[in-house]
Amino acid sequence: MTDDRVILDGAAVEAEGLTDWRLLFQALHARFRTGDFATGLRLVQAVGEAAEEMDHHPDLDLRYGQLHVRLFSHDVFGVTRRDVRLARRISGLAAELGVTADVAAPQVLEIALDAVDAAAVRPFWRAVLALEDSPVDDELIDRGGILPTLWFQATDPHEPPRQRFHLDIRVPPEQAEGRVRAALEAGGTLVSDDRAPTFWVLADPEGNRACVTTWVGRGAPSA
């Protein structure tokens, strides 16, 4: 496998010093505060030209006052040095326009379903949500990046109404403790921090659970 097809893990990405970017699951994310729509359009145009030149194409989400950029290598379903090079180029283009990144903004939501027999229920959810099998694990994904990823957590047999779904919110490592603290101050409880800083398990006042997660303690996925 050539160097440009090697998937980088969190530590390798962090070592690249991409100050505008954060690794969330299998992609680099950055949110640029453009201030107005016209500046956002100019940045999109510049990014598009760079992407064509480098033959590597990001996902762009332009809203009023901000541009969210997601970078990953589709052929290996992870972050490679191609993404690192394009990330640096995009940061440079943003700087030329006087646009800065909001490094606290990137986050990605996943949905987890407790399942006694994941193989039995996965086909239903694949069909009803029109998702696809992930090439690197047992998750179901929307390749267009619009719907959240759905993954299946092994559980013991139980009767409803035990909670079956929970939300996983992936944040940059430096944001995780603040997010946990905010949830606790909002009335939540800490169920477990045994696996922190990989993830914290929290619950709302009625016991419904959510996890704050980071890349720390996880290896790079294998394609």
From TrEMBL:
Gene3D superfamilies, alphabetized: 2,3-Dihydroxybiphenyl 1,2-Dioxygenase, domain 1, Transcriptional coactivator/pterin dehydratase
EC number(s) from the headed UniProt entry: 4.2.1.96
Domain Glyoxalase-like span(s) in chain numbering: 111-213
GO biological process: tetrahydrobiopterin biosynthetic process
A GO molecular function held by the record: 4-alpha-hydroxytetrahydrobiopterin dehydratase activity
The reaction(s) this protein catalyses: (4aS,6R)-4a-hydroxy-L-erythro-5,6,7,8-tetrahydrobiopterin = (6R)-L-erythro-6,7-dihydrobiopterin + H2O
Keywords assigned: Lyase
Enzyme class: lyase
Domain of life: Bacteria
Protein family (similarity comment): Belongs to the pterin-4-alpha-carbinolamine dehydratase family.
Protein name: Putative pterin-4-alpha-carbinolamine dehydratase
The organism of origin for this protein: Nocardioides panaciterrulae
